[in-house]
Model the fold of this input.
Amino acid sequence: MHITFVKKILSSGELCKKCREVSERLESEDLIKLINHIAIADERDSNSEGVRLAKQHGVTRAPFFLVEDDGEVTVFDIYFKFKKFMLEHTAGESSAPSL
Done:
């Protein structure tokens, strides 16, 4: 399983508020260790990796997660749905976070 976390940088150069909140939750809930890659959707650069991923997967809001497993990609644009999915799919693994 490969997980990409996409955060948005506003035209002001700051991380969007929701992206900051989700980043903090990932850290405090020890789920950050499940993230394989962080991509940035920069409003100042229409060709940034995160903007390209958003277009490719039809996502219109950030932050979002792309979970690739066996060639299939599942998109989560709501943190709690991502968290629930990950807890269900890592329950049997020794590295699974406990809440």
Summary: The helical segments are 17-28, 49-57, 79-89. Residues 94-99 have pLDDT under 50 and may be disordered. Residues 2-89 form a domain with the Glutaredoxin fold (CATH 3.40.30.10). The two ends are 21 Å apart (CA to CA).
